[in-house]
Amino acid sequence: NSDSIYAYDEWDIVEEDFKVENNARSETVFALGNGYMGMRGNFEEGYSGPLGTGNEGTYINGFYESEAISYGEIAYGYPEKGQTMLNVANGKIIKLFIEDEEFDMLSGEVLDYKRTLSLKDGILKRSLIWRSPSGKEVKIEIKRLISFQNKHLAAINYEVTSLNFHGRIKLISALDGNVSNVISENDPRVGSSFNGSVLSLKDSKIEKSFAALLQTTKQTKFSLACAMENEIDTENSYQLKNSKKGSRVEIHYLVDGEKDKKITLTKYISYITSRDYAKENLVKRAKDILDKSRADGFNSIYKAQKAFLLKYWKNADVVIKGDPALQQGIRFNIFHLLQSVGRDGKTNIAAKGLTGEGYEGHYFWDTEIYMLPFFLLHHPEISRKLLEYRYNTLDKARKRARQMSHNKGALYPWRTIDGEECSAYYPAGTAQYHINADIAFAIKRYMEATGDIEFLTLYGGEILFETARLWSDLGEFIEGKGNKFCINSVTGPDEYTAIVNNNCYTNLMAKENLEYAYEAALWMKKNKNEAYIDLVEKLDLKEKELLLWKKAADNMYIPYNQGLGLYPQDDSFFDKAIWDFENTPSEKYPLLIHYHPLVIYRYQVCKQADLVLALFLLSDKFTIDEKKKNYDYYEGITTHDSSLSSCIFSIVASDIGYKQKAYEYFMNTARMDLDDYHGNTKDGIHAANMAGALMCVVNGFAGLRINEEGISFKPYIPEKWQEYSFKIFYRGRVIELRVDKKKVIYELLEGKEVEINHFGQKLLLKEKNKISLEIGA
Ligand code: BGC
């Protein structure tokens, strides 16, 4: 096809032609991960292309180094230390020599090349015939996987067959700990400020086919073991040698190769850190994992991988009939979300997953508002883990609240790895207090969809109370605003407007936070009294605080311009001139890398959905007319310079019947990374957009909403499709929705009968039953 560099296939991402100019972005596209570790799609043999056209990268979720942030001018309460997810020892390396000629994609000739990422099986394959500069030919077939079942394990199966010669074939399997992070140039979205290697070698080991490196970080004092076990399978005679040099260990297999005789090297790789286990035994633990893996063999690990993914896809798949390119894009997103998500309650989802160094591996509100809702509908157990992460970092959020002069409550960081605020630019960082409300909102949605009382009692309640406390401390009842509860000097989601009074989104969401905390407290008091009393004691929570939450929620100031029928994004938004879009040439976008922030802040111009996001999240609080009016207005001034924007515009467009727009915005999201729409896929995937693309289908086209009132749908089918379907969890049930040109079918696959709402009509969906309804055009 002409539009994509990858062939259209519904389950595979296939590259049939390797080009240097596509290398860096393909490294992201072909990245593998299991939520714990991630490896970019780098070639085993390395890459010899021009500087800047590739990044070697292996990452471990939550494994970071911290460094003092250097400010030109410092002020009180600025975060002192940054955190950067480290590029760790490269375990992917397998070099191949034919006599003295080294295999390299850019030397000799590459024939019959094909690289395939199988989304169904979770495996990356590369096959090719290499003709060396002197004319010797080998067939190379490589399979790589990162195990979803054993988070510490990756494996590579490397086969090489001589096609036209007898002679020495050398395979070198290595671990290289001499690695460094990408240095950010002038773009805040690219990388870190670390220059050179920050991991120091503590120990290295080689013993026959096993080798290991033990490295540590200086500031965070983490230890990391990276180890490998190798197994060669050949009918030919061979010698095994090894070498150790600094932070690099190598095992060499020198095989007396024969024409048509296949040689297979299987490499098992393990990463394990002191964040998981005591640092004393890391290498031993890694070795145990590798010994077991070698005994199991590559095929059995692969089988387990397939079994894991079969289960994942069963509930996560979103099927679209009639457009293979879209289907591929959608499945690619679903797959990468799983590869990115930390499932241990100690880690979360970085904005770029584990595929690149953009945003330094930090977690943002992206999780609660974009990615978590996806998992909540398809794999709620994962969404609970994400919320547990917030619980596990609650103490740090309390500490941050004190630094920010709040005597009570918790303030979650805008960006972080281990829970401490890392944003060095407070106007678009710390000032985004809405993160607190976003987390509370996710808890509310989680509870509405799962009814998981244990979670609320153990974790959720405490987060809700501490975030509510923060709002009640931050806001004031302002006389000049009719004694309404106002929240001043904050930044909403739109980063092209900063430090404003009464950001409408923030106030609406804070109101939800306060209300829900109040309700949760009453509920717990009544139904889980013992736990409630313990919590009240622990937090020294007073009855009058609860009343204050309620009062603040009931009296929240929501900016609204009666004359225009519009919600201003904040108090002063409509006092500003509109950005001169007409005279801004396309090369000046994204604005953030071409204009000083102050210049941008002076105008009505939005980087991303802000008020429009509230129209979606708090859908039932606005009339369709209000939604239309506000959508029309904000659409005209939004640049979508953030990849978090288009999906929200698509969903709201669906809601208000702007079907064409809904589709166009959706099309900006579905293949964003596959087709590199933002030109920066090389820095890593856009995880929030990936989840956003799925929301366009589920919440947009199918119109799904879940709230305290229940579950409702407003499905329609985009003109170009024949059919679409997906399954969702809802309070212990699995409901499947299938929509084609004529009808919609709701089927209750698991669980007890349930009432659903279809375009305002209440329907009872009975056990193991279907309801089929005609839909209008
Ligand atoms: C967006 C933020 C987002 C961050 C990380 C920024 O460009 O404006 O809303 O949290 O990227 O994805």
Structural key phrases:
alpha+beta, nine-stranded antiparallel beta sheet, 18 helices, globular, binds beta-D-glucopyranose
Instruction: For the record, give the distance between the C-alpha atoms at the N and C termini, rounded to a whole number.
Output: 31 Å
- The residue ranges in which pLDDT falls below 50 over 5 or more consecutive positions are none
Radius of gyration: 27 Å
The tally of strands reads 31
**Taking all residues together, what is the mean pLDDT?**
97
Portion in helices: 25-40%
Report on the structure:
The protein is α+β, with helices and mostly antiparallel strands. Helix content is 31%, strand content 26%. The strands form 7 sheets. A 9-stranded antiparallel sheet has the order 1-8-9-10-11-18-15-14-13. Helix 4 (324-340) packs across helix 18 (687-701), helix 6 crosses helix 9 and helix 16 (646-655) runs parallel beside helix 18. The model has no long low-confidence stretch (mean pLDDT 97). Beta-D-glucopyranose binds at residues 351, 359, 364-366, 493, 495, 607-608, 642, 644, 688.
Write the layout of secondary structure elements.
Elements: E1 12-15, H1 23-29, E2 32-33, E3 37-39, E4 58-68, E5 81-87, E6 94-98, E7 101-102, E8 109-118, E9 123-131, E10 137-146, E11 153-162, E12 167-176, E13 199-207, E14 210-217, E15 223-233, E16 238-245, E17 248-257, E18 262-273, H2 282-296, H3 298-316, E19 318-321, H4 324-340, H5 366-378, H6 380-392, H7 394-403, H8 434-450, H9 453-474, E20 476-478, E21 484-486, H10 504-527, H11 529-539, H12 543-554, E22 577-578, H13 597-601, E23 603-604, H14 611-617, H15 624-636, H16 646-655, H17 659-670, H18 687-701, E24 705-707, E25 710-713, E26 723-730, E27 733-740, E28 743-750, E29 754-758, E30 761-765, E31 770-774
The structure holds beta-D-glucopyranose.
Residues 351, 359, 364-366, 493, 495, 607-608, 642, 644, 688 line the site of beta-D-glucopyranose.
